[in-house]
């Protein structure tokens, strides 16, 4: 499961990198994915929307058992 999660996150990285940000997989536990945002993303006012609308949606497309994505 973690390898599939990392693949999806790797697909997102170029988009975040283009705006000066980055995302890193931290862990997967109890159907929740934990990520760390870095660079411009770490202080962005839209980071919660990015996590819930983009990251969670992309992960759930291929792994519907994922219930949430949380920043740590």
DSSP helix fraction: 40-55%
According to CATH, the fold-level topology is GMP Synthetase, Chain A, domain 3
Report the radius of gyration as a whole number of Å: 11 Å
> Mean pLDDT across all residues, rounded?
93
Content of β-strand: 25-35%
Low-confidence runs of at least 5 consecutive residues:
none
Number of helices: 2
Major sheet: arrangement of strands: 1-2-3
**What general form does the structure show?**
globular
What does this structure look like?
The chain is an alpha+beta fold. The chain is 46% helix and 29% strand. Strand 2 (32-39), helix 2 (47-62) and strand 3 (68-71) form a beta-alpha-beta unit. The protein starts with a helix and ends with a strand. A 3-stranded mixed sheet has the order 1-2-3. It contains 2 helices and 3 strands; from the N terminus they run H-E-E-H-E.
Highlighted features:
three-stranded mixed sheet, 29% strand, 2 helices, GMP Synthetase, Chain A, domain 3, 72 residues, alpha+beta
